[in-house]
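Lecture notes, unit on protein representations.

Consider one protein chain, 105 amino acids long.
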Amino acid sequence: NQPAGHVDATLDTVTHKLKYTIEYKDLSGPVTIAHFHGPAEPGVAAGVMKLIPGPYQSGMSNTVTIDAATQSAMLKGLTYVNLHTAAHPKGEARAQMKAGEAPGM
């Protein structure tokens, strides 16, 4: 099976708080660390912008405060979630974040 996953996130642009839920399956092993990376177009590698705190398990959910540069990149669709494993220390699963309006707005 190929690794698969999904990220749902909501960004409050006033408080700079990012609430997210990350789901994944079929990785080669446990997630050892996870980050938001950017700024980068889809398929392009970039540096770490924000650590995603553990514990790492599918369905993990949290709220983190991000800085202005990370918020700007997120609003432009230039950030991605990268899940790292022991077998793939540079990242095994990647999900590009897409900016969009909340439903009903």
